[in-house]
Design goal:
Blueprint: H1 2-9, E1 16-18, E2 27-42, E3 45-65, E4 68-81, H2 89-95, E5 102-107, E6 113-117, H3 119-127, H4 131-140, H5 143-154, E7 160-162, E8 167-175, E9 181-196, E10 199-213, E11 224-243, E12 248-266, E13 269-286
Antiparallel strand pairs: 1-7, 2-3, 2-13, 3-4, 4-5, 5-6, 8-9, 9-10, 10-11, 11-12, 12-13
Helix pairs in contact: 3-4
Length: 287
């Protein structure tokens, strides 16, 4: 009777090892393709932008020890194109300066970023010896933001044996420079195993939520300040496929639809700004 009762109730799925696996000297590549479709209106004047950014990054596990690991991140290529594949000259002029840049992230055993090396060299590539350009680069691409990005790229798995149906949460803050900042919270769920491209993979879905914070008064650009505003997430969803056998991401996709209404003060005059934006980010691990 007890045996038949168990059959009727069923067993929970077996726990799966959702944990990154590293060995000293390991190398792997990650390709990210981000498509941005954006319409911005400033004082009823409309600006439209449709861009595709493709980035190839090489990772090397340079050190391992009881205190954590050091992960070296080298930008091998970056390019920006229009939707038809034509180069975007203005964007590529900046991106070309980043090619070859190396960052070294020292991580705790829990994959928290405790130290980042190479940030000053990155700023020098972007700004040279111009202090005003350096300040702009620091505002748009802060060291803390880079740490968050590295941690986010690794932190979507719980680093432990996990049962199907389990949930966990992560959050990160993205700097928008003089426009303020945006906090993204993500609710992850392990949906179970699924065979994709002939490989058994852990399927992880997640739902993001967004909250916007305007800039602090002492952090605004003297020529531009945001006096009030709101950014809402109309729709958002993400899907991750993780390979438990190799301890690596296989591929992932994220789609966000955002709308925003801001009031900016430009040279002392208040100007309304509205925008609509759709962004799709696809990431795939390469050997």
């Amino acid at each position: 009777m007890f045996y038949f009762l168990l059959l009727f109730i069923g067993f929970p799925g077996d726990a799966v090892n959702l944990r990154w696996q590293f060995k000293q000297g390991d190398t792997f590549q990650q390709e990210t393709r981000s498509q941005l479709n954006q319409i911005v209106k400033v004082n009823q004047q409309e600006f439209k932008q449709d861009l595709v950014h493709t980035t190839l990054v090489k990772y090397t596990v340079s050190e391992m020890g009881p205190g954590g690991i050091t992960l070296e991140q080298q930008i091998e290529s970056m390019k920006a194109t229009t939707l038809d594949g034509s180069p975007s000259p203005g964007n590529n002029a900046v991106l070309n300066q980043l090619q070859g840049a190396i960052l070294k992230a020292k991580l705790t055993p829990e994959l928290q970023v405790k130290e980042l090396e190479g940030y000053d060299e990155l700023l020098k590539r972007l700004a040279g010896d111009d202090p005003s350009v350096r300040r702009v680069a620091q505002a748009l691409l802060s060291e803390e933001q880079l740490k968050n990005a590295i941690q986010h790229s690794l932190g979507f798995v719980p680093q432990k044996e996990t049962q199907p149906g389990a949930t966990w949460n992560r959050e990160m803050t993205i700097s928008l420079g003089p426009l303020g900042s945006m906090r993204i919270a993500q609710a992850f769920k392990f949906d179970g195993m699924e065979t994709v491209e002939g490989v058994p993979l852990a399927k992880i879905s997640y739902q993001p939520t967004v909250s916007y914070s305007p800039p602090k008064a002492d952090a605004t650009n003297p020529e531009l300040s945001i006096t009030q505003g709101a950014i809402q997430l109309k729709q958002g969803s993400g899907l991750v496929y993780f390979d438990p056998a190799t301890g690596r991401l296989h591929h992932s996709t994220l789609k966000l639809e955002l709308t925003g209404t801001l009031t900016a003060k430009l040279s002392g005059k208040e100007v309304p700004i509205t925008f609509e934006q759709t962004q799709t980010v696809d990431v795939r691990m390469k050997k």
